[in-house]
Write a structure and sequence with these properties.
The protein is an alpha+beta fold. The chain has helices spanning 10-13, 28-38, 42-46, and strands at residues 2-5, 17-19, 58-61, 64-65, 83-86. β3 and β4 (64-65) form a beta hairpin. The radius of gyration is 12 Å and the shape is globular.
Length: 92
């Protein structure tokens, strides 16, 4: 499964796109768990003290923010889905 990272997350994972060998039918929540296990510094960037995705972090599945899709963070994803992970971005 290919996952695209943006902004400050790229140096943590070592590039723009990474590929993880995940099983078909993994949930968005499980994907995030795999990411923070593989790259522990992502935990403080993505998850709050309760292990939930920060509201200012966005995990898009096929262009839709995961928490707002049917099933939310527990929706399943496939290898064909396009996954994008965005940190909080500020600017003026």
């Amino acid at each position: 499964m290919k996952i695209n990272f943006y902004a400050t997350l790229r140096p943590i994972v070592g590039g723009r796109t990474v590929e993880l060998p995940l099983e078909e039918g993994v949930t968005v929540r499980e994907l995030v768990t795999h990411l923070v296990v593989r790259w522990p510094p992502l935990r403080e960037q993505l998850l709050d003290e309760h292990g939930e995705l920060y509201q200012h972090v966005h995990v898009f599945v096929n262009g839709r923010d995961a928490p707002y899709r049917d099933g939310g963070m527990d929706a399943t994803i496939t290898a064909a889905d396009v996954i994008d992970v965005f940190p909080a971005v500020a600017g003026g």
